[in-house]
Amino acid sequence: MAGKVLTITSGKGGVGKTTVTANLGVALALHSQRVTVIDADIGLRNLDVMLGLENRIVYDLVDVVEGRCRLRQALVRDKRLQELFLLPAAQTRDKTAVSPQDMVQVCDDLRQSFDFLLIDSPAGIEQGFQNAVAPADGILIVTNPEVAAVRDADRIIGLLEAEEKGPAHLIINRLKPKLVERGDMLDTATVVELLAIQLIGIVPEDESVIAAANTGRPIAFDDGVTGRSFHDIARRLLGENIPFAPLKEPGFFDRLLRIVRPEGG
Amino acid sequence: MRLLDLLLCRRQPSSSEIAHERLRLVLAHDRANISPGMLDTLKDELITVISRYVPIDAAGVEVTFTQGRRESRLVADIPLQTGKQHGQ
């Protein structure tokens, strides 16, 4: 078995890379995939708290690289999903503690026992980003439908093309269908046309993501439009052809229609 | 051109249309690594050079980017002054 290494990156900070990584990890594991999510944001680790695993960390990525523990000892197994593991970042070091070669070696080792390795890249285009993309077989670029985030995503796509890294797929995060309708938010088609890479997911803006982060239980565990959008991405990654569903929660009339015509919904 | 349409249009553009237009320009400049200022200088020099060979209508010169799929193209639209009646 040779697992696939996917790096989640964005250029701009705060667009939801860590949320996407945590949720895709959960969604893939719920589809019976063996997954390790790797936090490559050394010095600013967050993936552990997103997954609610912060109290169970003993060793981290830097301990592995510097030989203080074996790779398996640093992996934290998720309490809820037997198939999901976290390789945490070090909190007290910086990005220079790990080199791109170290990341390639760690991933080559883990590839043997997992179906997917998801690397959560730090923001920016410096060494942390270079570390995160070095072992990647594919890249997932997260952006928000707004000018600054799309611009930075384009810059990242350019850098990846120059380094012949890829293929890169696009995840549009925090889309607000109501704002798009009103003409106050870029729509999916425009963002895809501007960036000219293949779309793999659209995730709506959802307040419950905040509650999910509060409790350390990613939204992909639960049913709902947002949780489902992550499962759709997971299934596309597994090769299924999933159409892009409308993002709106069913309104009053949709529900009424479903009651009147149960098979029509 | 779309910016021009919007300026001439009666309707106020929506904020997402403005975002689209701004992104189109900023991405073209980012990708080609040419700033708007540099583009102006390029245009001025282009006018100087071409004027040495053919009389052109300097005020009508337009140097713009066009976007294809992940490729940028620099397009210079240079109106020539044809016939004596168009001379100053």
In short:
Chain A is 40% helix and 16% strand. Chain A has helices at residues 17-30, 47-50, 61-65, 71-74, 100-111, 127-133, 147-162, 177-182, 188-195, 208-215, 225-237, 252-260; strands at residues 4-9, 35-39, 76-77, 84-87, 116-120, 138-143, 168-175, 198-204.
Provide key terms for this protein:
heterodimer, A: 265 residues, alpha/beta, Rossmann fold, eight-stranded mixed sheet, 12 helices, 8 strands, 16% strand, globular, B: 88 residues, alpha+beta, two-stranded antiparallel ribbon
The biggest beta sheet of chain B is recorded as: 2 strands, antiparallel
> Structural class of chain A, please?
alpha/beta
Distance between the termini of chain A: 40 Å
Reading side by side through the largest sheet of chain A, how are the strands ordered?
3-4-2-5-1-6-7-8
Q: How many E-type strands of chain B? A: 2
**Overall spatial form of chain B:** globular
Q: What is the total number of structural domains of chain B?
A: 1
Question: Which whole number gives the mean pLDDT of chain A?
Answer: 93
The helicity of chain A comes to: 40-55%
Q: How many β-strand runs of chain A? A: 8
Count of all domains of chain A: 1
Structure description:
The complex is a heterodimer of chains A (265) and B (88). Chain A is of the alpha/beta class. In chain A, strand 6 (138-143), helix 7 and strand 7 (168-175) form a beta-alpha-beta unit. Chain A is built from twelve helices and eight strands. Chain A has helices at 17-30, 47-50, 61-65, 71-74, 100-111, 127-133, 147-162, 177-182, 188-195, 208-215, 225-237, 252-260, and strands at 4-9, 35-39, 76-77, 84-87, 116-120, 138-143, 168-175, 198-204. Chain A starts with a strand and ends in a 5-residue tail after the last helix. In chain A, helix 1 crosses helix 11 (225-237) and helix 5 packs parallel to helix 6 (127-133). Chain A has an eight-stranded mixed β-sheet, sandwiched between helices. Chain B has 88 residues and is of the alpha+beta class. Chain B has one domain. Helices cover 47% and strands 14% of the residues of chain B. Chain B has helices spanning 2-8, 15-32, 36-51; strands at 62-67, 72-77. The longest helix of chain B is centred in the first third of the chain and has 18 residues, at 15-32. The two termini of chain B are 28 Å apart. At the A-B interface, helix 7 of A face helix 2 of B.
